[in-house]
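We store amino acids, tokens; thus:
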Amino acid sequence: MTFVVGLTGGIGSGKSTAGHYFEALGIEVINVDLISKNLVETDLDLHLKISGYFGKKSLLGDGSLNRLYIRHEIFNSSKKKMWLEELLHPPIKDRVLRSLRYSLSEYVILESPLLLETDQYKLTDRILVIDVSKEVQILRVQKRDRISADAIEAIITSQMPRMQKLKLANDVVENTGSIEKFKLKIECLHKNYLTLAEEL
């Protein structure tokens, strides 16, 4: 039985960076965003359903999905967001379960922005939330994605409230200091997770 740590956090919190740190420590990271991206790129049926639902603007010149446009649409329409989630969540869950079944890692990180908004959290033994203030989220995402503060606010509003995430977390890492401090916090958690995995 694999010990699974769910890794989540709001947009711009640094959860992906945390995932990379765990990978560098030799731990398998199952990244739900990457699974979702691979699914819509390789499954023609899903690709056609999504482009058919979101229209011509959802396609780029090379025929691939315009992820920025679709993200904008779902964060401004709960109906569209729900439609996409209902389409993608079952095949995503199948791939996650398959990855967990064949994992040889001492424990596994399940990295997902929607871990707590979906039933993905039920696959975990422990939940780790990477936390920053809303102001930091906006600054980081503006710098990274070059989108407006209003657009980022809409994304933050569409996600589970920060305080609610923190209440559901077993572990919280504040990512507001230096890279070195953030890395050290992840390394400390890694040692703890190794111990917990051995006790499972």
